[in-house]
C-alpha cells in the first residue's frame, strides 16, 4: 500500500503555500491519536525516500511524504473526510507555522473519504518546522496531530529531510 501511495504522490506537481487562518478560528479540539501510529522512514520506488505516519507493516497510513535526493519538492499523500473530485487544498501546521497546499482529490476506495495528492516545496516553512520539532497536524474540521513522540521518530524525520536535500 505504501508503495502505491508513494507512486501516486510522485505524479502531481502543484504547490501553493499561503498563510491559513488561525486554527482557533477554523478547527475544533484536536482528534485523538490512533493506537500504534508512528513516523517511519524507508526507501521507496525509483530511489525515493518515504516518511509515513502510520502503523508499521500495515496499510494504516495517516500521511506520507516522499522525495528524491536533491529534490526541490516533497510529495504528500493523505486522506480528508470531505471534498469533491479534482483540485482542492489541504492545510498543515507545525507549531504556530501553517500552510495551505494545492492538491488533487480522488475518492478513496480504502477509507470512503478523499485521497489527497500534492507537492510541497522542500524549503516550505511548515516542513522546516516539522523537521526541527517533530510536530505536525493536518487541519480539517479539527486538528489531527501526527506528532513524533519518540527520539527514534524524530531521527527518522531528520533522516528523511537529510536525504531530500542530498
Can you characterise this structure?
This protein is of the alpha+beta class and 166 residues long. It has one domain (2-24, 37-165): Immunoglobulin-like. The chain has four helices and nine strands; from the N terminus they run ααβββββββαββα. Strands 1-2-3-4-7-6-5-8-9 form a nine-stranded antiparallel beta sheet, with helices on both faces. A hairpin with a 5-residue loop joins β1 (38-43) and β2. The chain starts with a helix and ends with a helix. Residues 1-28 have low confidence and may be disordered.
N to C succession of SSEs: HHEEEEEEEHEEH
What's the story with the biggest beta sheet? 9 strands, antiparallel
Q: What is the terminal separation in angstroms?
A: 26 Å
| Mean pLDDT over the full residue set | 83
Q: Given the C-alpha coordinates, what overall shape results?
A: globular
Which fold does the CATH topology refer to? Immunoglobulin-like
SSE blueprint:
Blueprint: H1 2-9, H2 23-26, E1 38-43, E2 49-54, E3 61-67, E4 73-80, E5 86-94, E6 97-107, E7 114-121, H3 125-133, E8 137-139, E9 143-145, H4 151-165
For the structure shown, list the relevant keywords.
alpha+beta, Immunoglobulin-like, 9 strands, 4 helices, 166 residues
